[in-house]
Amino acid sequence: MKKSTLLLASFLMITVLSCKQKNEKNNDKLGLDSSSLLSKKNETICYSYIKNNDTVTLSIDGIDNTMIGELTYNLYQKDKNVGIFEGQMSGDTLIGTYNFISEGQESKREIVFLKTDEGFVEGMGNVEEKNNMMVFENRSKLNFSSGLILKEVNCN
Predict the structure, then answer these.
(1) Helix/strand/coil (H, E, C) string of the chain?
(2) Residues 11-54: pLDDT tens digits?
(3) Which of 6, 139, 141, 147 shows a CA-CA span of 20 to 30 A to 25?
(4) Are 33 and 48 in contact (CB under 8 A)?
C-alpha cells in the first residue's frame, strides 16, 4: 500500500471517529428543520442502493447542521470508491463533498442528494473542475429522475 494511501486512510478513520465522539458529547437536539434526517441525537443513519452487481452505501451522523459519514461506490466493472462524505441539508436537499480514494488516487467531488419518501436520490448533471475538485456546472439543472435511490437500511 502506498504511503499516501495509508496516510489518507488513517486520516479518514480519525475524522470519522472524532466526529462520532463529538456527536456523543452533544446533548442538544440537532439544529435541523422538520426535514431532519436524524430524529435522535447520537444516531447513525444508513442508506444503500443494491441492484444487479452494483452497491452504494452511505452511513451518516448529524452534528449540528452538518452530516458526515462514509460513502462507498462499488459499481460493476468500475473502480471502487471509498471515502468520507460531508454535507449540509438545505430544505430537502443534501449538498456535500465526497473525499475518496479510487485505485490509490485521492479525489474530491461535489455530490447532491434529494431526500424523498423513498430515500436519497443522487443528482446527475454536467460537471467541471474547480480548485482540484469536480463540481456541478449548475445545481439548478440537476436531474434526479435517473439517479441512484439509496434507501434507508439497518446499520450493521
Answers:
(1) CCHHHHHHHHHHHHHHHHHHHHHHHCCCCCCCCCCCCCCCCCCEEEEEEEECCEEEEEEEEEECCEEEEEEEEECCCCCCEEEEEEEEEECCEEEEEEEEEECCEEEEEEEEEEECCCCEEECECCEEEECCEEEECCHHHCECCCCCEEEEECCC
(2) 444 444 444 444 333 323 333 333 444 444 558 899 999 999 99
(3) 6
(4) no
The 8 Å CB, 24+ separation contacts for 49-55 are 49/148, 49/149, 49/150, 49/151, 52/76, 54/148
Q: Are 90 and 37 in contact (CB under 8 A)?
A: no
Place of cell 440537532: 30
Strands 105-115 and 149-153: unpaired
With b for 16 or more beta-carbon neighbours within 10 A and e for fewer, the 75-100 pattern comes to eeeeeebebbbbbebeeebbbbbbbb
> Model-level pTM?
0.72
Question: Count of CB atoms within 10 A of residue 68's CB?
Answer: 22
The set of cell numbers assigned to 129 is: 473542475
C-alpha–C-alpha distance, residues 137 and 129, integer Å:
9
